[in-house]
Amino acid sequence: MLRHRAEPRTHAGTGGRAATRSVVASLAVGALLLTGCANLMSPPAPETLEIVTGAQPGLDAVALPGERDELVASALEQLPALAADALERSGVPGLAIAVVYEDEVVFAEGFGVREAGTDLKVDPDTVFQVASVSKSLSATAVAAAVSEGDVTWDTPIHDHLPEFAFSDPIVTGLATIGDAFSHRTGLYTGAGDDLEDLGFDRDTILDRLRLQPLDAFRSSYNYSNFGLTVGAEAVATARGQEWAELMQQLVFEPIGMISSSARHDDFLARDDRALLHAYIDGEFVAAYDRDPDPEAPAGGVSSTVNDLAQWMRVLLAGGSLGGEQIVDQAALVEAMSPQIVTSHAATGAERPSHYGHGFNANPQVSGRMSVSHSGAFVLGAATNFQVVPELELGIVALSNGAPVGMPEAVTASFLDLVQYGQVTRDWIADYGAAFAAYTEPLGDLVGVDRPADPVAAPSDEQIVGTYTSPYFGTATVQREGDELTVRLGPDGGIALMLDEWSGATFAYAPSSESAPWGSLASAVFGFGAGGSDADSGSGGEAATTLALTSFDERGLGTFTRKAG
Q1: How far apart are CA 27 and CA 12, in angstroms?
Q2: In sequence order, what DSSP letters do the residues of 543-557 get, joined into one string?
Q3: 85-114 tens-digit pLDDT
Q4: 238: closest CA among 138, 358, 357, 142?
Q5: Residue 418 and residue 75 in contact, taking contact as beta carbons nearer than 8 Å
Q6: Neighbouring-strand partners of residue 507
């Protein structure tokens, strides 16, 4: 039954487990008897902290400040105001929210608009690109494949993708599907994303990952879209399916997610869909389409809050829905449980955070575990869900604006109201600060003044030509009308305008999922045998190399000129 607001219920909330309540109280130090001490007063009794004790200490948690049903009902009543405030303060055009409680959808509503400047309202069936929330959905699919005996989380990737390779042959032989889904293969964050930005397909990107350097295998955590994708491809190959078909068969159809897909074309075919809004010059602007098909397992799902609410019911019910077991509970619990530490304490005082297989898994301040994930497209999407199994409670928030921490603020505020009876901090401001780096321009020339007395640039004859990279492929430098450009990608479809800066250094403005609006980087032509002298070329010799600095984070951004 769908209820817009939850009504208070009569039975007592117990935190979702058989539990006893104990009172943890401080001793009243220095308590005095008044007899014979008329001029002294006993100190006030200290406030007590109530703890819900479980079958083991790891299940203990801070007690709720009231009956659970009543707290959830109160939080639901305040949720529309939280959403309105979040939209107003963030400037994001649209937001949809759904809440699941005790295996029922108790809230599903849209706020704002699907496209800025229009009156196209967001509703619970508006389809959003969910970005990296896809990882948790994909992990659910893998858990279902584990349930059917196709693979295990410990199945080596190489068993099903024998042609795939990492740069280290030991990692190639040992890395498992679970390693891929917990981001511990050693691939660095962003590996392959740059190729996707240029328009390369999944097969090409996965093949070229063998050129990427690696961090420590299994002891390092580096969030990697294509690291996870290769694990998903191993599962799809084991089943003889394409990934989008696998998702449809193992997740969307069994759960009844009728508006969900892992194909971008399906998203574009929806009439009721939210457009992406990038953050450009202080405003959210619908300026881009984002086709995430190459990394579909990591970021390619589109869905609605009504669909995702049904999925959260599965997560909270141990893999079942309406009495039918969709996913084996043990396989799903393994995915939703910590597998690697994602942030280590700097001083010893901080709580660490953890990642499972496609899920964040972290304790709340209350002591209750939260399983969650955020999604972010710099080109214009931000999403978040959190489920708290102890409370039988889940919330999902989908938005159509670049990541500024707004969905996370909404879900955190709601869970605060349920667990503490109040919002504990200004989540909009604090998450906004935490997410600020996502929309900050990048590049070595950002904020740098153009030289007042630049060195003359090389002639077109010296630098026009074709340059190649084993990783990025071909870069073609050519004159197009009055513009000097470098074209990249499988069909030269990405054109970067080269603006004279000084000598053999040119400026260009990358604009992609990996480069927010306002980014500015240098393209440097090299001359001579080593191609290292950026200011040479005055003798008329031809350039031998081209370094594109925004593509060079892992040392792969230098192209060598082809002879002839």
Answers
A1: 30
A2: EEEEEEGGG-TTS--
A3: 999 999 999 999 999 999 999 999 999 999
A4: 142
A5: yes
A6: 499, 522
CB 448 within 8 A of CB 434: no
- Asked if pLDDT for residue 280 goes beyond 50, the answer is yes
Compute, in degrees rounded to 10, the torsion defined by CA atoms 33, 38, 40, 43: 50
Helix, strand, coil percentages (3-state) for the chain, rounded to 5, are: 30, 25, 45
Residues belonging to the chain: 564
* Position 243, amino acid: W
**Residue linked to tokens 């100190």:** 43
The backbone torsions φ and ψ at residue 319, rounded to the nearest 5 degrees and listed phi first, read: 95, 5
Alpha-helix runs per DSSP H in 262-393: 264-268, 296-299, 305-316, 329-336
Strands (E) located in 326-368: 340-343, 353-355, 360-363
Which range has the worst mean pLDDT, 1-5, 440-444, 468-472? Answer: 1-5
pLDDT in tens, 317-364: 999 999 999 999 999 999 999 999 998 888 888 888 999 999 999 999
Q: Report the alpha-carbon distance of residue 417 to residue 405 in Å, rounded.
A: 18
Q: What is the DSSP letter of 183?
A: T
Residue 94, helix vs strand vs coil? strand
Tell me the pTM: 0.90
Residue 272 in this model has a pLDDT that exceeds 80: yes
User: Does residue 75 contact residue 417 with C-beta atoms inside 8 Å?
Assistant: yes
